[in-house]
Design goal:
The chain is of the alpha+beta class. It is about 35% helix and about 30% strand. The longest helix is centred in the last third of the chain and has 16 residues.
Length: about 80
């Protein structure tokens, strides 16, 4: 997969969402973006609308989305969270 998002940006967004966001039953939510992790903490997830980004060990990631427009909105939202 082409590197659409810098892994450092995604991890920074995850950290800010979990630090500044509201705790939910499944994780955290901040500015409309959800963040959660699996039971051992090695796999983290970011979700916004119909986009889910899976951050895996060794800097790998996967992004599931339905349209390129929704992916662009997700990327914009992640970058805004990191810019704060």
């Amino acid at each position: 997969m082409e590197n659409l998002i810098d892994n450092k940006v995604a991890l920074t967004a995850f950290e800010r969402i979990t630090r500044l966001g509201e705790k939910t039953d499944t994780g955290y939510q901040f500015q409309g973006v959800s963040a959660w992790q699996d039971y051992d903490g090695y796999t983290c997830f970011l979700g916004y609308n119909d986009v889910t980004m899976t951050l895996m060990f060794h800097g790998k990631y996967d992004i599931e989305y339905s349209t390129s427009d929704s992916l662009k909105q997700f990327m914009k939202k992640i970058n805004l969270i990191c810019a704060d």
